[in-house]
Specification:
This protein has about 425 residues and is an alpha+beta fold. The protein has a single domain (about 5-425), classed as Orthogonal Bundle (Cytochrome p450), CATH 1.10.630.10. It is built from 18 helices and 13 strands. A five-stranded mixed β-sheet has the order 2-3-9-6-4. It has a three-stranded mixed β-sheet with strand order 1-8-7. A hairpin with a 4-residue loop joins β2 and β3. α7 runs antiparallel to α8. The protein starts with 6 loop residues before the first strand and ends with a strand. The mean pLDDT is about 90.
Length: about 425
């Protein structure tokens, strides 16, 4: 087919881009304007060439699920931190790494971590009971990070998170938060967070050495031991790649879950009836209550998907929703805006967990709801994240209601969408 038979992707007027730049708004505001004016496939000129924004469900599925070979990842924004871990890997290396890890996060593999998730939730519940007795002020965001880090650390090493390791691994969220503001030059960026990276490397090095020595925690071997065993038959699993996978799992396994749980509590603070409805859905431990609690998590993920934007690059020319996509075009899939599209979701600005329990309440197209992505590069830890979030909430929701002393005024759009500020509270 001749190129002239294709339609060009409609482009947002330069004046509106300039207006956004002058106003200093968030990038998501510009993207929302583009979608509102131009539809689910729109071009925005952020540099010399237009970037194509994709929010239409069919186009989302086309890019991420049906033709991932045409729309490829080039370099992960967190490569400075995660190196060649599975999130950043490409090609054959990515396929090998994903195949090894995938079995650990589905079916029988997930059952291996059930007890570790429960123990981490119990530890958090005991800590919250102490806060409630004393009236101590806690930071909900920090508490959620502490729980999620404990859970993934137990799953990786078989050990509960100790105070020293927790203190050193505070460098992980520090680097994640710094990523959007680091210099473009790789050497300069590395230097800007060198101290934090050194602390992370030291923790990873000690954990890898202990696993190589056969040391298992009280819960038995962890996922790190799977990586160590792989190094016996797969020469690519050097200590450096094992370190990269370990840090990747730390980042993906605690940062996104902690952020989701923090948003959930902030949303419940504004919508207290949602908590009451979930608890009234069934008795403690019942499938009905579990489904209702999990629906709270899903609705939070609809508002604030962990991967709010998914960058891809067109490896070859393509026809997307009737529009010409030239090879080399930057394509940004934006779950954040897809999840808030009034053409897909009834009253999308309203927090309503019932969308995920009542039949027919949510769109069925797979490109309509993708908090963890879709297609071959969808997040490996989807079931793990849902399970740990649900288990923690089953422990905490019946017993405690945080009373926030202040709440963040806005969101910060970086590697994830996180509350832009502290979340101090006491427990009722």
């Amino acid at each position: 087919m001749a190129t002239h038979a294709f339609r060009a992707v409609p482009e947002l007027e330069p004046g509106l881009v300039g207006e956004w730049q002058a106003g200093g708004g968030e990038l998501v505001d510009l993207f929302a304007r583009a979608r509102e004016r131009l539809g689910g496939v729109a071009a925005v000129r952020l540099g010399p060439r237009p970037t194509v924004l994709v929010t239409d469900p069919q186009a989302v599925q086309h890019v991420l699920a049906l033709h991932p070979d045409r729309y490829v990842k080039r370099s992960h924004r967190a490569r400075l931190l995660i190196g060649d871990g599975v999130l950043a890997a490409t090609g054959d290396a990515w396929q090998r790494q994903r195949r090894l890890l995938q079995s650990q996060f589905t079916g029988r593999g997930m059952r291996r971590y059930e007890q570790r998730i429960t123990e981490a939730a119990r530890t958090t519940a005991e800590r919250w009971a102490g806060y409630a007795r004393t009236g101590q002020v806690l930071d909900v965001g920090e508490e959620m990070r502490r729980f999620a880090l404990d859970t993934i650390w137990r799953s990786l090493t078989g050990h509960p998170l100790d105070v020293g390791t927790e203190r050193e691994l505070a460098a992980v969220p520090a680097v994640v938060a710094a990523l959007p503001t680091l210099p473009a030059d790789g050497t300069a960026a590395q230097g800007a967070v060198a101290a934090e990276l050194a602390r992370i490397d030291a923790v990873a090095g000690r954990a890898i050495a202990a696993a190589r020595d056969g040391e298992a925690g009280p819960d038995g071997p962890g996922l790190l031991h799977v990586l160590i065993e792989a190094s016996g038959t797969r020469p690519e699993y050097t200590d450096r790649l094992i370190r990269d996978e370990l840090v990747t799992l730390l980042v993906a396994g605690h940062e996104t879950t902690a952020t989701t749980l923090t948003w959930l509590y902030l949303l419940l603070d504004r919508n207290p009836e949602a908590r009451e409805q979930a608890l009234a859905a069934g008795t403690e431990g019942s499938p009905q209550r579990r489904q209702a609690v999990q629906a709270l998590v899903h609705e939070t993920l609809r508002f604030y998907p962990p991967a709010w934007i998914l960058p891809r690059c067109a490896a070859e020319g393509d026809l997307l929703a009737g529009y010409e996509i030239e090879a080399g075009t930057e394509v940004l899939v934006c779950p954040y805006l897809t999840h808030r599209d009034p053409g897909l979701w009834e009253d999308p600005a309203r927090f309503d967990a019932g969308r995920f329990t009542a039949p027919g309440r949510r769109p069925t197209h797979p490109g309509s709801y993708l908090p963890f992505g879709i297609g071959p590069r969808a997040c490996l830890g989807l079931q793990f994240a849902l399970r740990e979030s649900t288990v923690l909430l089953e422990h905490l929701l019946p017993a405690h209601t945080p009373r926030f002393r202040s709440t963040p005024a806005k969101a910060a759009y970086g590697l994830t969408v996180r509350p832009d500020g502290p979340t101090p509270a006491t427990l009722g």
